[in-house]
């Protein structure tokens, strides 16, 4: 249903359904992080702050403030909580532009408020089926607090791996949804059921947790190498689930598959780099861009469409955006070996363009369509 709303009504709608406001704000932050390479004095630290301290918590807030009320049967309007989180975000952004450490302090406040709200909703419903989500939220709070009091960037780097654990957990649920859509589109398979292998999923999560702890406690590079190599092969083993033409011919599953391939390849490469004492920055950026950022954008697309009375059919600009994001990761982690312009310049332009295109597509979708509950 197409709507014709005033700006005030649009703003009210976006905060009544926080997914809309926070997904768009996260896209804005991704663009700011890319622009910061050309305007910030300490651009390396500032882009880490924007991605880890702003983009990630905003993305999680948008997803969780839509999903958790559904899981916990929470009927109340969350707009007041959304406005509070928005105010914390503004403080975080403003302080971060002055002092990155202070920005991370307010980022911790954001995580604490979001965690407390989600735990409260789940507790009211006596819901014990989402322990993994609660554990992820608490872990982000712990790692942020550890960085604030120590200024040890190991805790920031650990957040990349923690994000990947979240990607695996949420991706497991998303994979069931998108596979069901793909099977439903073919009358011969509409009664078929796709069930991803939860054993490989749990082993992968356990291995990455061990890797996070080993990196925090300064285990040798040899130990880290074997741990991350094991993570990569466990993730690689999960790819067989998608090796069916009926699934891979759907564009949203093809994107999911390419992201999963980059995730497994990134960990294998990271393990080799630790074992051979090579620079780990290259595979780490492949994981950060092609696994974390790309999965978040994929979920932006899926959740944005499903909660706006739309079919699961990515729009042209959204397909271009995901393609640009994947290319950015490849250029930053591989092509930059051979040309310095692919180290910062090209990837930053591609990432900023990708999120701008996504925001243009979905601002119009959110503006023109009512919010819909999860169709499942």
Automatic annotation (TrEMBL):
Keyword Membrane carried by entry: yes
Q: Which residues form a coiled coil?
A: none
Locate the transmembrane regions by residue number: 21-40, 46-68, 80-98, 104-124, 131-148, 160-179, 199-217, 223-240, 252-270, 282-300, 312-331, 337-360
Name the PROSITE patterns for this protein.
PROKAR_LIPOPROTEIN
Q: Which UniProt keywords apply?
A: Membrane, Transmembrane, Transmembrane helix
Q: What is this protein called?
A: NnrS family protein
Q: Lineage, please?
A: Bacteria, Pseudomonadati, Campylobacterota, Epsilonproteobacteria, Campylobacterales
């Amino acid at each position: 249903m197409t709507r014709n709303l005033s700006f005030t009504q649009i703003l009210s709608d976006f905060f009544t359904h926080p997914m809309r406001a926070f997904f768009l704000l996260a896209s804005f932050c991704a663009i700011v992080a890319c622009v910061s390479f050309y305007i910030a004095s300490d651009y390396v630290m500032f882009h880490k702050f924007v991605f880890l301290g702003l983009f990630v918590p905003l993305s999680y807030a948008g997803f969780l403030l839509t999903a958790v009320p559904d899981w916990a049967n929470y009927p109340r309007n969350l707009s007041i909580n959304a406005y509070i989180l928005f105010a914390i975000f503004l403080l975080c952004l403003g302080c971060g532009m002055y002092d990155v450490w202070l920005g991370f302090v307010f980022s911790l406040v954001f995580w604490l408020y979001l965690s407390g709200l989600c735990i409260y909703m789940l507790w009211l419903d006596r819901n014990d089926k989402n322990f993994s989500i609660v554990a992820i939220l608490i872990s982000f709070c712990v790692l942020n607090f550890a960085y604030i009091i120590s200024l040890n960037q190991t805790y920031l780097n650990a957040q990349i791996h923690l994000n990947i654990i979240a990607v695996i957990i949420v991706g497991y649920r998303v994979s069931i949804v998108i596979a069901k859509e793909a099977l439903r589109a073919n009358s011969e398979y509409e009664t078929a059921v796709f069930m991803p292998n939860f054993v490989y999923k749990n082993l992968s999560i356990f291995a990455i947790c061990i890797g996070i702890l080993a990196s925090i406690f300064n285990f040798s590079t040899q130990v880290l190498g074997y741990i991350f190599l094991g993570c990569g092969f466990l993730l690689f083993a999960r790819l067989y689930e998608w090796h069916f033409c009926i699934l891979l011919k759907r564009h949203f599953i093809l994107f999911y598959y390419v992201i999963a391939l980059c995730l497994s390849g990134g960990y294998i490469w990271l393990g080799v780099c630790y074992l051979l004492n090579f620079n780990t920055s290259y595979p780490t950026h492949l994981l950060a861009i092609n696994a974390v950022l790309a999965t978040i954008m994929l979920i932006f697309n899926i959740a944005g469409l499903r909660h706006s009375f739309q079919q699961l059919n990515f729009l042209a600009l959204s397909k271009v955006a995901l393609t640009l994001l994947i290319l950015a990761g490849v250029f930053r982690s591989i092509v930059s070996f051979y040309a310095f312009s692919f180290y910062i310049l090209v990837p930053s332009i591609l990432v900023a363009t990708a999120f701008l295109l996504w925001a243009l597509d979905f601002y119009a979708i959110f503006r023109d369509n009512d919010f819909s509950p999860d169709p499942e």
